[in-house]
Amino acid sequence: MLDGDAERLMAALEDVLQPNVSLSPILSIRTGGPARLLLEASNERGVCRAIEEARRLGIPILLVGNGSNTLVADTGFDGLVIHFGPDYADIVIDGDAVEAQSGALLPVVAKRVAEAGLTGFEFASGIPGSIGGAAFMNAGAFGRDFSTIVERVRCLTPQGEILELDNQDMAYGYRTSRFMQEGLVVLHVRMKLAPGNKEEILVRMDTYTAERRAKQPLNYPSAGSFFRRPEGHFAGALIEEAGLKGHRVGGAAVSTLHAGFLINLGDATTADFLALMHEVQGEVLTRFGVQLENEVRIVGVDPT
């Protein structure tokens, strides 16, 4: 991005943008260089205007919620990053309907709906993501995903039009959606749950949390499951069978607890993770003839 374009965007948005902000603190994997410009989302109008102005100037845009499925180049992102964080995280419960802005964190929503005696969201209670990201990629766990609870989504098209989509229009599939396919920006999500017993809901949430803690390396920074599930296989099982548990490149390693997770041992770089990814993919392909595809979004660098 040219310096003049950055200055023009800052001027157009009345200096609400922050220049050269490190992204690693807001990405769960804790790597990545700076954003040339960062906007902390606080309202829909501001988000839409920022996107409109950036597109007018030809400035690349990166949208980040909880940053739990994103790997950014060590050189950073030379464009505008819009962070859907705590200032864009309202949650409203009306009967069995739940409305949430994109930045609302899944564990926070889970706690709110459990307290309201609503069931159907327990599967998402331990996913370290935001509502916007979960609706965007159809996040799931324990045999359920967001396609089963999302009723309506308010989103922004690449042409700057606001759309209200119903569930049947979202083209949901395994870790995919119309939002992903068409580059739609998720702004607001409405979910439909069901009345339930509060104590039973909390017990289920505790059970899921205990299972995650037993099976996933939650004590280390990561981007969650790094690879998509290949047809007829499980990525973690293939990686483990290839003898790669604990294999490391620099500060990045294959978890010894769950081989589908690549973890940051404390000083990893994005380059470390990319090198480790390629080594894992190569070994699994050689041994089993299966090409692992990254589920994690890789930004600012060619993953090949």
Helical fraction equals 25-40%
- CATH topology of the largest domain, which one? Uridine Diphospho-n-acetylenolpyruvylglucosamine Reductase, domain 3
Q: Which CATH-level-2 architecture of the largest domain? A: 2-Layer Sandwich
Report mean pLDDT, rounded to a whole number: 94
Shape: globular
Count of helical regions = 8
Major sheet summary line = 5 strands, antiparallel
Beta-strand segment tally: 19
Overall CATH class of the largest domain: Alpha Beta
State the secondary-structure class. alpha+beta
Summarize the structure.
This protein is 29% helix and 26% strand.
Q: Could you characterize what this model shows?
A:
With 304 residues, the chain is an alpha+beta fold. The chain folds into three domains: 3-86, Uridine Diphospho-n-acetylenolpyruvylglucosamine Reductase, domain 2; 89-205, Uridine Diphospho-n-acetylenolpyruvylglucosamine Reductase, domain 3 (2-Layer Sandwich), CATH 3.30.465; 217-299, Uridine Diphospho-n-acetylenolpyruvylglucosamine Reductase, domain 1. Helix content is 29%, strand content 26%. It is built from eight helices and 19 strands. The chain has helices spanning 3-12, 44-56, 106-115, 131-137, 178-182, 198-215, 235-241, 270-288, and strands at residues 18-22, 34-40, 61-64, 70-72, 77-83, 91-94, 97-101, 118-119, 140-141, 144-145, 150-156, 162-166, 185-192, 194-195, 222-225, 248-249, 252-254, 261-264, 297-299. The strands form six sheets. The protein has a five-stranded antiparallel beta sheet, covered by helices on one side. A four-stranded mixed beta sheet has the order 1-2-5-3, covered by helices on one side. Strands 15-18-17-16 form a four-stranded antiparallel beta sheet. Helix 3 (106-115) runs antiparallel to helix 6 (198-215). The longest helix has 19 residues, at 270-288. The radius of gyration is 20 Å and the shape is globular. The relative contact order is 0.13. The model has no long low-confidence stretch (mean pLDDT 94).
